[in-house]
Design brief:
Length: about 220
């Protein structure tokens, strides 16, 4: 559009403004709209129409940049992958050890008891990195099946000393081969060298966060 200011519309003898031609081009797009302004008698640096629109465009782009976040796919998030890997391992463990009717947690408890021979519930909870309430519930279920013995501690009547029964030791011996097969299957898509490296990296992460065993420790 042509713009001109005539002296007849002004009482002052101001010089006529330069003539500019501006046009707008809009592109139907989700992400952008382009506005173009062309000066007929002025270069880019001195055209006030162009400068105004470019300034507005820059501000709009800056606001968009502030409000937008780069997408972060679930497949690239460590926390999601760790949780998914745990689900896969539990499924593989059930496939391999389902006939023994033992969960991965109970298998860990049996293994910890076999290593310690006798231990209180608090110690076992620390061994398997779980809270005492969850550990006690699992031990009670194992005791109900006669795999674990929970005796009252003479030195502390509130505590229980746990140990494997002969039936529990026999079960652990039977399940060991199948349980190890489930662990190998969890890392089955890795080479032997990659498995060693992966386990080493997990150990380093765990060792570096030894005080983060529960939500209060993590978020407190």
């Amino acid at each position: 559009m042509d713009m001109a200011v005539s002296s007849t519309f002004s009482r002052r003898a101001d010089p006529p403004l330069p003539r500019y031609e501006a046009y707008f081009v809009f592109y139907k797009s989700k992400a952008r709209a382009m506005i173009s302004v062309r000066c007929r008698r002025s270069n880019r640096a001195t055209c006030p129409v162009l400068q105004g629109w470019e300034s507005a465009l820059r501000k709009t782009k800056n606001r968009r940049g502030e409000s937008k976040h780069r997408p972060w796919p679930l497949s690239q998030r460590p926390g999601f992958l760790i949780r998914r890997l745990h689900q896969i391992h539990v499924a593989l463990f059930q496939e391999a050890c389902g006939k023994f009717e033992i969960t991965p947690l109970q298998y860990s408890l049996l293994s910890a008891l076999a290593a310690r021979e006798t231990a209180d519930q608090t110690t076992l909870a620390a061994d398997i990195a779980l809270d005492r309430t969850t550990t006690t519930g699992a031990l009670k279920r194992l005791a109900a099946r006669k795999f674990v013995e929970r005796a009252i501690n003479d030195k502390d009547r509130r505590a229980r000393l746990c140990k494997l029964t002969p039936a529990g030791a026999a079960l652990l011996a039977k399940i060991e081969t199948s349980a190890r097969a489930a662990h190998r299957a969890t890392l089955g898509n890795l080479t032997e060298r990659e498995r060693t490296s992966f386990i080493d990296m997990m150990q380093r992460i765990v060792a570096g966060n030894a005080n983060r065993d529960s939500p209060p420790a993590l978020f407190g």
